[in-house]
Write a structure and sequence with these properties.
The chain has 101 residues and is mostly helical. It has one domain. The protein is 72% helix and 0% strand. It has 4 helices and no strands.
């Protein structure tokens, strides 16, 4: 039953999964940023930065310039959350959202 839902509604689940992965990776970057320095050579830190830098670059223009980097990252988490909610609302409005049975 669940497998058929994933296959049937792949056009919803795939973008939702990508947005969720970015959202949680950005949250991980914010938490890890409290422990690790910004110029650390730690490979986990570099991975988080490499994956989330495009999201941070997209969020930075709508965030005040005086905000600390961790605040920009947390704003990114909030923006990605609302993008996921908007995706669900959009698909539900067109009747293409997964249905609970």
């Amino acid at each position: 039953m669940i497998g058929t839902s994933l296959v049937t509604y792949w056009y919803y689940h795939l973008p939702n999964f990508i947005l969720a992965a970015l959202m949680y990776t950005l949250l991980g970057r914010a938490l890890l940023g409290l422990i690790v320095g910004p110029d650390s050579s730690n490979y986990i830190w570099r991975f988080f930065c490499r994956i989330t830098d495009p999201v941070v670059a997209a969020i930075a223009p709508v965030t005040p310039k005086a905000a600390a980097p961790v605040v920009v990252w947390l704003f990114g988490v909030v923006w990605l959350f609302w993008l996921r909610v908007g995706l669900l609302v959009l698909f539900a409005a067109f009747g293409a959202a997964p249905k609970v049975e």
